[in-house]
Amino acid sequence: MESASVAVPAEEHHPHPPEANQSSRIDRQTLGILLFIVSEVMLFGAFFASYFFLRVVANDGPWPPHPFELPVAVAGMNTAILVSSSFTMHWALESIRKNNRRGMQTGLALTFLLGATFLFIQLNEYVHIGFSARDGSFGSIFYGLTGLHGAHVFVGLTLLTFANIRAWRGHFGKDAKDHLGVEVPGIYWHFVDVMWIVVFTTVYIL
């Protein structure tokens, strides 16, 4: 007896899984960096919670406690440098959107230099500030908050290094999908700048 065979229409064959659905509103890379930033905001939030606990609940005297003194003027100048880097980053992205490759290259290079200057000044501040992370709770939370931000600046500079290399190799274009390598580091860099404004205001000014 011959076994019966059932023909399967060609369209029902699925040799490969279907492609994942992708929203037309936002690409995967941008969504990924935004979700990462949300997690980083929560990380900074934990440090800020510790800072305000030490300042408001556990402290009953002046803040910063004696004999700690912070170089507000130096930190203010450093803040201006980092904020300026956000403008150069925005310039780089807008330049490539208009197919201005020279403007993009210049903007990325200036952003990297300004960010590196900020990090150098911060490290120099650590050398001359007169206390360490082991000097009481204030020393610990000061280095914890500013050091956490400094680590994020270093990560941002790493991303900018790759963006600069790719820019000079001609990897980017004016179409949205062709300059994600500029846009994604730019989003992260703006986050780093905003977080420093919050850190500077909280630790040095208030």
Oligomer: single chain
Main sheet, how many strands, which sense, barrel? none
Task: Name the structural class.
Answer: mainly alpha
Poorly predicted ranges (pLDDT <50, ≥5 residues)? none
The end-to-end distance, rounded to whole angstroms, is 91 Å
CA radius of gyration is 24 Å
Describe the protein in words.
The protein has 206 residues and is mainly alpha-helical. Helices cover 69% and strands 0% of the residues. It has helices at residues 28-57, 72-97, 101-128, 136-168, 180-205. α1 runs parallel beside α5 (180-205) and α4 packs antiparallel against α5. The N and C termini lie far apart (91 Å). The model has no long low-confidence stretch (mean pLDDT 88).
Summary?
This protein has 206 residues and is mainly α. The chain is built from five helices and no strands.
Give a topology summary.
Elements: H1 28-57, H2 72-97, H3 101-128, H4 136-168, H5 180-205
Helix pairs in contact: 1-4, 1-5, 2-3, 2-5, 3-4, 4-5
Question: Which features does this protein show?
Answer:
single chain, 206 residues, mainly alpha
